[in-house]
Design goal:
By secondary structure, this protein is an alpha/beta fold. Helices cover 37% and strands 19% of the residues. It has 2 domains: 1-30; 45-173, Glutaredoxin, CATH 3.40.30. It is elongated and about 85 Å long.
Length: 177
């Protein structure tokens, strides 16, 4: 039986094209863990100021506003009341404000604890990054940094620098059910 070279070449090209399409489709449809828009936010577990331990993944199912801060940071001081206001207004609407103290950046632990009490942050999941794990995991470059995550922990926005209630409210409204 004689095989036609054109038929064999065509079949090889079809199989190669199908393989390429499969690889492209697989890479586009699978979200990767990372710290940029479109990535799945890396999970972590940390102690909290209320004495418990918490993980970022505990809040899946809600839109999450995750704020990375330090007590000596003036923009952090200015925006924290805005974050607490956002928490109060949206906690029953599927939004969780998670704050993470960059404790390894703090001058003293007492200053961080005073900041938490001063801003009544124990009403939210207020976590403590004691060893710099989250700072490293998220390649922290600037304080404050705020991530907005959808219900599946996908990063929908990242704000490096100070934010406010209105800016956050506008960003989360499009992600509420």
């Amino acid at each position: 039986m004689k095989v036609n070279r054109k038929v064999v070449t065509s079949l090889i090209l079809i199989v190669a094209a199908a393989a390429i399409l499969f690889v492209v489709f697989t890479n586009l449809s699978v979200s990767r863990v990372g710290t940029e828009k479109g990535d799945i936010a890396p999970d972590f577990t940390l102690p909290m100021y209320n004495g418990n331990e918490g993980s970022l993944s505990n809040y899946e199912g809600n839109v999450v506003i995750m704020n990375l801060w330090a007590s000596w940071c003036d923009p952090c001081r200015r925006e924290m009341p805005e974050l607490m206001k956002l928490h109060q207004e949206y906690k029953d609407k599927g939004v969780t404000v998670v704050t993470v103290n960059m404790n390894s950046y703090e001058r003293t632990q007492e200053e961080a604890e005073k900041f938490v009490k001063e801003h009544d942050m124990e009403q939210t999941p207020a976590m403590i990054d004691e060893e710099g794990e989250v700072a490293d995991l998220y390649n922290l470059q600037l304080l404050p940094t705020t991530y907005i995550l959808d219900e599946n922990r996908k990063i929908v926005d990242k704000i490096a620098g100070e934010t406010n209630f209105e800016q956050l409210e506008n960003k989360i409204k499009e992600h509420l059910r």
